[in-house]
Amino acid sequence: MGRQMTEMLKGTLEGIVLAILSRRPAYGYEITAWLRDQGFSDIAEGTVYALLVRVEQKRLVDVEKVPSEKGPPRKVYSLNAQGQEYLAEFWRTWGFLTERLEQLHKRGE
């Protein structure tokens, strides 16, 4: 991933993770693996875990500790009502931005 992609991703990763959690509860490694499967190969696990701490502190997710067959319990994150509202606002903002960027792009051709 190039530097420009990395910088753009920093501003949207929170919304992307919340969108993942809107589909189903997940733990940090699952989220990281899904992102990598989608082509975000340079995302470090630490980045996702730090983001999960932030969204937990913002009270956008509920957290449940679930026993793990391998090691300590896993923290499973699920999107709560406040997180759903935040995600809806993210999608509205995303729609606005992509619409304007597309207009700029078309005018440049």
From TrEMBL:
Gene3D superfamilies: Winged helix-like DNA-binding domain superfamily/Winged helix DNA-binding domain (1.10.10.10). It holds the Pfam family PadR. It comes from the Bacteria. Residues 17-89 form the Transcription regulator PadR N-terminal domain. SUPFAM superfamilies: Winged helix' DNA-binding domain. This is PadR family transcriptional regulator.
